[in-house]
Amino acid sequence: MARPFQEVKIFGIQDRRMTGPGKNPWIVRWSITGRQRSKSFRTKTEADRYRSYLQHAKTIGEPFDEETGEPVSWQPLASETPIHHWARR
Q1: In 10 A of CB 2, how many CB atoms?
Q2: Using CA atoms, how far apart are residues 43 and 49, in angstroms rounded to an integer?
Q3: pTM reported for the whole predicted model
Q4: In which band, very low, low, confident or very high, does the pLDDT at 52 lie, cut at 50, 70 and 90?
Q5: How far apart are CA 89 and CA 85, in angstroms?
Q6: Cα end-to-end span (Å), the chain
Q7: Which among 55, 54, 59 has a CA at the least distance from the CA of 74?
Q8: 55-74 as b/e, with b when 16 or more CB fall inside 10 Å?
Q9: Contact status, residue 40 vs residue 26, Cβ threshold 8 Å
Q10: Considering only CA atoms, which of 69, 23, 32 is closest in space to residue 50?
Q11: What average pLDDT does the segment 75-84 reach?
Q12: Residues 72, 57 contacting (CB under 8 angstroms)
């Protein structure tokens, strides 16, 4: 069975330093099959690193999880998942 096509778009890093006193002013934005995702970071370097990891996963064709928005390989193994996290899912 063929894997369903995922349209992954990775956008730039948004600078929100001037909008107010935020702890995490650098925001990485991306979308998976039309659903917008974002994650904020304390420094621009952290945001740029995360964005490049997403870009690399997209380039090598890795599938992305619809729920978390991150590549499937980034998820912990079932043996490493705490029982309360497993139960909440």
Answers
A1: 4
A2: 10
A3: 0.77
A4: very high
A5: 6
A6: 26
A7: 54
A8: eebbeeebebeeeebbbeee
A9: yes
A10: 69
A11: 73
A12: no
Q: Which two tokens stand for residue 51?
A: 């964005």
Residue 8, Cβ density class (10 Å: 0-12 exposed, 13-18 middle, ≥19 buried): buried
Amino acid at 36: Q
The tokens of 29 are what?
């934005």
Please tell me the predicted confidence (pLDDT) of residue 75.
80
Tokens at 11, concatenated? 């956008």
Lowest mean pLDDT among 29-33, 34-38, 76-80: 76-80
Distance CA 64, CA 57 (A): 9
Residue 61, SS3 per DSSP: coil
